[in-house]
Amino acid sequence: MPGLQNLPALIVSLIVHVILLGLMAAIRYNLIVTTPHVAVETVFSEERQQEEFAQDLQIDTMASESMNVTAGGLQTTSLGATSSTAAAAQTKIEQSETLNEPEFRFNIADLSAPGLDTLGTDLGEGEVSGETGAHVDGYGAAMSRLSQELLRMMRQQQVIACWLFDESNSLKDDRKEIRDQFDKIYTELNIANDKAVRGRFHSLETMIYSFGEGIHSITKEPTPDLAEIRKAIDDVRIDETGSENLFSAISTAIDKHSKAAARSDRKLVIIVMTDEVGDDAELLEEVIVKAQRFKVPIYVMGREAVFGYPYAHVHWVNPESGISHWIRIDRGPETAFPECLQYDGFRGRHDAYSSGFGAYAQVRLVRESGGIFFLLAQDEANLAGRAAHTGLARKFDDVAMKEYEPLLLEKREYARRRDASDFRKAIWNVILTLNPHIDGQLNLRWHYYSIELPEFQKQGRKNFDRSLRAMAVINQQLAVLDRIRELRSQEAEQRWRAAYDLLYAQLIACRVREFQFLLAMDQHVRENPQPQEPDTNYWDLAYTGEMLQPDEQQTQKTRVDFAELEKQRQQALDLYEQVIQDHPDTPWAMVAADQKRLGFGIKFVERFRDPRAFTEEEQGVIPKF
User: Fold this and answer.
1) Any residues with CB less than 8 A from the CB of 321 and at least 6 apart, and which?
2) Where are the domains of the chain?
């Protein structure tokens, strides 16, 4: 039979294949058992949710003449590696002298991976979370990056870009700058319009809104007309209420355009320009859910939060009277809850220390929606408070700051993790206890002491008693920090170790300065100095590097001599220096260095303040920022 005649050939073939398969299995087994095991250890705790490196954007603000699309995560990084195209990155790597003779030669296997340009093309929507800190020197750089983002999205579908402009007084000049930058962005995007397949809609249409207490539609509907867009920005009103309901405005914009965009297969993008966190941040999680549901990336052009503090102050001069005023605005903080002392030893903080990050609520929204937070790091002319214009660095090393990134968790989860740690919970309780916005009795008068002795004595007695109480509270909280000192070495987060170190140094310094305040008050009452300038109408407190020495009577009453006072001053200086050494190139080190220079002595200085500043008429014209 034909089948039996072929049997010997089949048997031979089967035997040959079995032998070959056996050899291949032996080779594979040998490769597996001889592959070295590489142990990798991480310095980050398991609970740490690592964020992205902040990026410094130094982008040419000239309009592009070609359509060069780059994925969101491939811009210039803080490490100095430019990856605008795959070819450019490959050339730089090949030419790097440091890689010509690598110190280690360890080849596991040949790897084949797609190039950077392919990765930028293939990553699907929602695969990469938003960027939490793209540092830009101005709106021009931000607009350049934004145009690249829009081009990337327009490659796949038409786009509706909803711009939300803050109606606050403080952003009037900024809105003009943004309006002028629209020429560039639309010049570049018209390249995409020319290449796009035109249908019933343009490849990019823009809607202009403004928001304050409410949201206002400036353009009647999305438009591609540049002249109409620029006019709409000029028509943004000033909201005199000072309210900034940012999250309500974003929610309204999503509600109004998301369904229409979905029906027409267009991409909805929201771009916000603001310098405050928003008065309705309690809506944050609701807006995040809505943005994720409709796949709406949110981009924010904003300012950095004041370090560990919810507020900032801006300087405003009444053009009619010439009188200066300092107006508080909401700027943060950069964390879900403040992780720094809210007290300067006399009153609520009045500084402008840089945090290096945007406000928590805005940054979390950007990250969860897949957008970008453009951190406008240039100097602000009207920003007031200590460290606003002292030449202190308002930009930190991104690599150093990587270990200090805030946890961008939902607030309840953030609080749960914080309170699960005895170390963190104790620090938080100290911050709460010494918060003058909660305990008003901690506030001491700093300005406007009367030049009339009887009234000065009345004001002095009230603040003298408050100071004694404040010092007692500070001593209690120092005892709390002493009790958790041994837990510091067990803390995994650099942010919380730095928070403990700076907080302890600040409380020692506050105690010394408050004692100096008591000595200065007592001396002023006894000596009753007279103003030297004819127009002086108030006494203010001021820091000085020269410390008052308690006399014999004061030493007997307080049981503190100058030697003990100097010892505590030196302890504060040493602790500040330790913060600088342990946390270099960070906001904690910046604050410590500035506080060392500030001086520990307190004195009274004569001042003139225009009496009209306190009238109802003058107070009534102060704008809401």
Assistant:
1) 610, 612, 618
2) 55-60+127-307+353-396, 419-620
Task: Please state, in angstroms and rounded to a whole number, the distance separating the CA atoms of residues 256 and 252.
Answer: 6
Give the number of other Cβ atoms within 10 Å of residue 226's Cβ. Answer: 15
Rounded Cα distance, 116 and 74, in Å: 8
Nearest CA-CA partner of 309 in 344, 284, 339: 339
Answer positive or negative: Cα dihedral of 390, 373, 404, 483: positive
> Which pLDDT score, from 0 to 100, does residue 543 have?
97
- The pLDDT tens digits for 140-160 are 888 888 888 988 898 889 999
Q: Given a cut of 60, is residue 38 above it in pLDDT?
A: no
Tell me how far apart the 2 most distant CA atoms of the chain are, in Å. Answer: 132
Cα-trace Rg, the chain: 31
CA distances from 622 to 185, 350, 372, 464, 613 (A): 36, 19, 34, 32, 10
SS3 state of residue 441: helix
Residue 190: per-residue pLDDT = 64
Summarize pLDDT for 164-175 with one digit per residue, the tens. 999 987 787 788
Q: What is the pTM of this model?
A: 0.78
**Does domain 55-60+127-307+353-396 correspond to CATH entry 2.60.40.2080?**
no
Over range 509-525, report the average pLDDT: 95
CB 73 within 8 A of CB 145: no
Q: Does 423 have pLDDT greater than 50?
A: yes
Beta bridge partners of 280: none
DSSP 3-state of 485: helix
CA distance 322 to 613: 10
Contact 589, 580 (CB under 8 A): yes
Q: What is the pLDDT of residue 183?
A: 73
